């Protein structure tokens, strides 16, 4: 089973080249642009994520199909309302997935890969996790609603393709109604910021309305500083993929109490026991 997004990879690579050349011929001192080692790392992470995704997609499809088979209602792919439900349901599922992966450390250990670059360009979109299994539960409710599994996977692919184009500094703010309803490069630059004001903001996939409704929206203001609050300073794909899992394991091994071990795994990133505990 080949993930649908794989078919867009040639276009992704071509657009990365085009954007990189744009910095060569139209440089901008206010934008970080590209750095070869960083770009190679991002593309290596993307290639590795697709290799891992192949067997995992099989597991995902089997689980979705099993759930879909046991529910007594099935929504018709020929109905426009099924696609409308799927669009909003998928985007809300992505918001929940994304927010959880910033607020639970064991999930963050997977997602941190995507935030590990100190640059922000189209190649950053390809810097993906090698542990995709952490996202499975968030889309199961769509199968429970009777949405056919192939439709869920297709909409996920559409969302990922859309989000590829958010990873750029070459696009400024868009028309105000677009900025209000949809996730845009400006909103997503905020999400990748390590500035205190930008941490844990703008989780949306295609839409930004969930962030506005649930209090996690932040407009782009001060210059964005990309990367992590503590950058890992490595271009080694294996270290990029697993450094936070290793750090969490070290904290768990050093903890003396089970509740502290649980806190290091299921608390937010940066959680530590109180000094007086």
Tell me what the structure shows.
The structure is a single chain. The chain is mostly helical and 277 residues long. It has one domain. Helix content is 54%, strand content 0%. It has helices at residues 9-25, 36-70, 80-103, 105-111, 140-144, 149-164, 176-181, 185-191, 209-214, 237-254, 258-266. The longest helix has 35 residues, at 36-70. It starts with 8 loop residues before the first helix and ends in an 11-residue tail after the last helix.
What is the structure about, briefly put?
By secondary structure, the chain is mainly α. The protein has eleven helices and no strands.
Q: What is the element string, with H for helices and E for strands?
A: HHHHHHHHHHH
Question: What is the count of helical runs?
Answer: 11
Gyration radius, to the nearest Å?
19 Å
Shape call: globular
Largest pleated sheet: none
Tell me the distance between the termini: 50 Å
